[in-house]
Amino acid sequence: MKILGFHRIVASLAMAFALVVGVQPALAQEAAEATATTQLESVDPAEAADVADADAVAEGAGAYTPMKPTEGIGMPVDRGLDIQPQFSETGEFAYGLHVGLIWVMVAISAFVLVLLLYTVFRFRRKANPVPSKTSHNTLIEVIWTVVPALILLAIAIPSITLIAKQYEPIPKDAITVKVTGYQWYWGYTYPDNGDFEIISNMLDDAEAEARGEPHQLAVDNRMVVPVGVPIRMQITAADVIHSFAVPSLWFKLDAVPGRLNEKILIIEKPGVYYGQCSELCGARHAYMPIAVEALPLDQYNAWVLAQGGKIAGAEEEGVEAAPAAAPAQQPESAVEGAAGAGELPVENPTT
Ligand SMILES: [Cu+2]
Questions:
Q1: Is 341 among the domain residues?
Q2: Residue 115 lies in domain
Q3: Which reaction does it catalyse (predicted)?
Q4: Is residue 217 a part of any domain in this protein?
């Protein structure tokens, strides 16, 4: 009876732990999604109506104001343990797999713990003075080989599905954004929209604060993309290897000089999503953050016009593109003898 009572305590402790670890993230995810939906509903209608207006779009400049980020969405949170709330289909799938795997691990760990404790108590020297000399049990051996193999097989199915999902062929009508990593800032080129390049530098703390954005993640010019539209992300670098990573979009791809890495990205909700260079690339590696702003397509088009670009497939309308710009900022690595370290990001001369 005593042993049974102890088992209960162990089992309930395991359950309590599992509840804390497994259920909280799921709740956080739901809460975050709810917030994002509210934000979408409360912000969009008026603005969307504005930009949908043909004249407003034609005017271009002035139709775009940087969106204010939502606290805790698309950015890390204090004492956060969990994966960031996800805003892409693959991200949601991966998050589900992550939570599912935690439960599988909790169940297996609890099962092994219970077996171990049972053995320790039930077969201790006092209770079991003459130990059994059994050395083989074919049935049990088959079970403990086959069952783990089946568990691994069951895990492999969603796991391989997730890999495949991330490298799905990109539809022809996708909008291309070419991301170039420089020492130490990012450049975003829009070949389908007139081939202009946006140079993105980190804001200093005071400026980030003034704009209501997180420190060391806020940038002067964001990578603006349309929401709900397939984006062909092409990632490369101009000097050393960088890595373009945005946790809340489940996106991470190395930026390698001389290579063009490509992956599809579809963002499900308008918002600002922050990320960082994730490949050690030199002295200011930690100060080249990424800010992705996802806008409804009409607002994205207005932003493109404001940058001097053109709307994809709208050439016949005679919207002139700005001449394709070379990187507006010289990579520090291109300057001979530059130490490169310790200097604050340079103001973008085009703004
Ligand atoms: Cu880098």
A1: no
A2: 2-45+67-125+139-166
A3: 4 Fe(II)-[cytochrome c] + O2 + 8 H(+)(in) = 4 Fe(III)-[cytochrome c] + 2 H2O + 4 H(+)(out)
A4: yes
344 domain-assigned:
no
What is the Å distance from ligand 1's center to 139 Cα?
55
Distance (Å) from CA 288 to ligand 1 centroid: 6
Q: What is the CATH number of the domain that holds 302?
A: 2.60.40.420
Its pTM stands at: 0.71
The answer to whether residue 249 is domain-embedded is yes
Q: Are residues 11 and 97 in the same domain?
A: yes
Distance CA 113, CA 105 (A): 12
Residue matched to tokens 């397509």? 297
User: What's the pLDDT score for residue 21?
Assistant: 46
pLDDT at 238 over 90: yes
DSSP-derived secondary structure for 45-113 = HHHHHHHHSHHHHHH-TTS--PPPPPTTSSS--TT--SPPPP-SHHHHHHHHHHHHHHHHHHHHHHHHH
Q: Which residues surround ligand 1, an ion (CB under 5 A)?
A: 242, 277, 281, 285
Q: How far is the CA of 153 from the centre of ligand 1 (A)?
A: 37
**Nearest CA-CA partner of 277 in 198, 338, 200:** 200
CA distances from 267 to 63, 83, 112, 319 (A): 22, 17, 41, 27
Helix (H, G, I), strand (E, B) or coil at 202: strand
Task: Give residue-wise pLDDT tens across range 286-323.
Answer: 999 999 999 999 999 999 999 888 887 655 444 444 55
Structural domains of the chain, count: 2
Band the pLDDT of 119: cuts 50, 70, 90: very high
* Shared-domain flag, residues 15 and 77: yes
Phi, psi of 13 (to 5 degrees): -65, -45
User: Are both 227 and 150 inside the same structural domain?
Assistant: no
